Amino acid sequence: MANIKSAIKRAKTSEKRRVANSQEKAAMRTAVKRVDALVLEGNKEAAQEAFVLATKKLDKAASKGLIHKNKAGRDKSRLAARIAAL
After folding, report:
1. Who is most buried in 59, 67, 68, 80, counting CB within 10 A?
2. What Gene Ontology molecular function terms does this protein carry?
3. pLDDT by residue (tens digit) across 25-70?
4. Where do the structural domains in the chain lie, given as residue ranges?
């Protein structure tokens, strides 16, 4: 454990951010998986609605630096292609 006061504070804030980032990433992954599941079911309307939420989560994660912006774009493109193929 850190001894210096500022290092102790940084450790606390880093842990808080780590937990928050982890939750944000998990929510993003869940949204993407939900779209995939709906595509497999063949439910195009529900998949399109879930796609809107997944897009929002991906963009937010990219803007916060949790994922690279190109990964967000790639994932959105792949999801859109799967939905369009229905």
Report:
1. 67
2. small ribosomal subunit rRNA binding; structural constituent of ribosome
3. 999 999 999 999 999 999 999 999 999 999 999 999 999 999 999 9
4. 5-84
Radius of gyration of the chain (CA): 17
What is the DSSP secondary-structure string of the chain? ---SHHHHHHHHHHHHHHHHHHHHHHHHHHHHHHHHHHHHHT-HHHHHHHHHHHHHHHHHHHHHTSS-HHHHHHHHHHHHHHHHT-
Q: Which two tokens stand for residue 75?
A: 């994932």
- pTM, rounded to two decimals: 0.88
How far apart CA 73 and CA 61 sit, in angstroms, is: 11
CATH fold for domain 5-84? Methane Monooxygenase Hydroxylase; Chain G, domain 1 (1.20.58)
